């Protein structure tokens, strides 16, 4: 049975389906030595290459679908490699054999919180696509006075505001308290446009001073997961996400069935690993600075 080429490449861990569509359109993919085109279908027995490099094609049931929850700190880039040498969200993730982690959407450099990763490009694509209306919830700290935000403003944000890339709105807005000029709200939306939460508030003249994603779908990030730490979801939660976007249930998992979520012991272990990574990053930065100084001499 044939499948769309971009779907096969996404399952092989080369990127999301949308990313693979762009790669194919740019002429970087060949099938049995001939340039591939968007819309091509493959059986899975062909020799597929990206930029001349062979792609190992994985059958749908060759490897289990895996999903990580990562607590992204501020200051990290949602890219595999940053030309300016800044830390990226991929730096701390566990290695994958014959595949790679795909980020489910992005968080900008000044946003922290829940970021999903999967080795299944089709799952990543569906979870990101607006047509599936998967809820994202954010904790937002805004800088304002009590009189800056009134019910009329909140109603405008719920009904919809015209931004430069179209209409946008919050499905829900809940006030969570605050004091002085710092006030917290929780907001929910079903799209993942660039800086959408910040731009919606800014359209009303309100400045966002902190932004944290706390939920994706119905699964909230565990409070005990430290910044810079990750945890792999068990079969039940993986299948929740798959069912949410009309994908068949997975039958295998790398996580033990009886494994607990994050208890105190596990939280301490994750914190220890985060600290080790930070120490390695500091050493690497110091070495790079020393090398730069030597070159200047």
Overview of this structure, please?
The chain is an alpha+beta fold. It has two domains: 3-54, Structural Genomics Hypothetical 15.5 Kd Protein In mrcA-pckA Intergenic Region, Chain A (Roll), CATH 3.10.290; 67-244, Pseudouridine synthase, CATH 3.30.2350.10. Helix content is 28%, strand content 25%. It has helices at 5-11, 17-25, 121-128, 151-159, 196-202, 235-244, 264-296; strands spanning 3-4, 29-31, 34-35, 41-42, 48-50, 53-54, 67-72, 102-103, 112-118, 136-143, 161-163, 166-168, 172-179, 182-189, 207-216, 219-220, 230-232. The strands form four sheets. Strands 7, 8, 9, 10, 13, 14, 15, 16 and 17 form a nine-stranded mixed beta sheet that branches. The protein has a four-stranded antiparallel beta sheet with strand order 3-2-5-6. A hairpin with a 2-residue loop joins strand 2 and strand 3. The protein is globular. The N and C termini lie far apart (62 Å). The model has no long low-confidence stretch (mean pLDDT 89).
